[in-house]
Design brief:
The complex is a heterodimer of chains A (74) and B (180). In chain A, 78% of the residues lie in helices and 0% in strands. Chain A is mainly α and 74 residues long. Chain A has one domain (2-68). By secondary structure, chain B is mainly alpha-helical. Chain B is 67% helix and 6% strand. In chain B, a hairpin with a 3-residue loop joins β1 (60-62) and β2 (66-69). The radius of gyration of chain B is 18 Å and the shape is elongated. The relative contact order of chain B is 0.14. Classes of the chains: A mainly alpha (74), B mainly alpha (180). The A-B interface holds A 9-15, 17-18, 20-22, 25, 29, 40, 43-44, 46-48, 50-51, 54-55 and B 3-4, 25-26, 29, 84, 87-89, 91-92, 95-96, 146, 149-150, 152-154, 156-158, 160-161, 163-165, 168.
């Protein structure tokens, strides 16, 4: 869990900025009442999930590679 | 690059930068809502030229639809200008750059750098997104509309994360060089 939090920490700013522009501001402007907004929001959230998952995968691969190439490894 | 840890510990310069970023976002959204293809020429035209240069069609200006390739049946409309990405990029770069905003001069410099970086990144990321969308447009896909939406989110957010990571890395190197 700590690993997950550490690897995701830097993503909070770009993800929050993106969600603020694409979802929060339109909701404040009354977009939630539009029928197509829910579908738009679901696609945005699905895309966010995929990008965060990809970032975690890359971080995991880098960590494993660093662990395997560590000089003091027995 | 620092991240926001609450408003109490922020200096006046940092608060002014945040207020400026919020103002740019709100005014930018309002501008985008009513903007025509001609109004957005400063961002649509270079994007359309870049897409054409990549060999993904031949786009010409149409005052109503935006930049159009009639043979492809594809338009780079005002909604495709990427202004939401530009605003998100500016906001993320300002928040991430707050740590380096110590006085009025460094704040103005960082705001200008964030605006310039956001603009260039928008051209690169949006050109990539449209090039992929054109390839998807020529393929025989089911749920094309939904896939186009998902592709947009992935390319935009992926590009935003990459831009933010690049800015963090540049910032760290600049600090390391300044310290000697």
């Amino acid at each position: 869990m700590r690993w997950l939090v550490a690897r995701l920490a830097w993503l909070k700013v770009p993800v929050a900025a993106y969600l603020a522009i694409t979802l929060v501001l339109p909701v404040l402007h009354g977009a939630a009442q539009r029928a197509d907004f829910v579908a738009h929001a679901l696609w945005v959230l699905a895309g966010c999930g995929l990008v965060v998952a990809a970032a975690l995968l890359v971080a995991g691969v880098i960590d494993v590679a660093l662990h395997l190439t560590r000089k003091d490894r027995p | 690059m620092s991240t926001l840890r609450g408003l109490r510990g922020l200096t006046r310069a940092q608060l002014a930068a945040l207020a400026m970023a919020a103002l740019v976002v709100v005014v930018g959204k309002e501008y985008y809502r009513a903007a025509t293809a001609a109004d957005l020429g400063w961002i649509l035209a270079p994007t359309a030229h870049a897409v054409t240069a990549l060999g993904c069609g031949h786009f010409t200006f149409d005052a109503t639809a935006g930049w159009v390739d009639r043979d492809l049946g594809f338009a780079i409309a005002p909604a495709c200008a990427g202004l939401h990405f530009a605003l998100a990029a500016f906001l993320a770069l300002v928040i991430g750059g707050l740590g380096g905003m110590r006085d009025a001069r460094s704040t103005v410099l960082r705001l200008a750098a964030a605006a310039a970086l956001a603009y260039v990144a928008t051209l690169v990321v949006n050109t990539t997104r449209i090039a992929i969308a054109i390839h998807m447009h020529t393929m025989d896909l089911a749920n094309r509309e939904e896939l186009h939406r998902l592709e947009g989110t992935i390319v935009y957010l992926g590009g935003l994360c990459a831009l933010y990571a690049l800015a963090r890395s540049l910032d760290r190197r600049t600090h390391a060089l300044a310290r000697g």
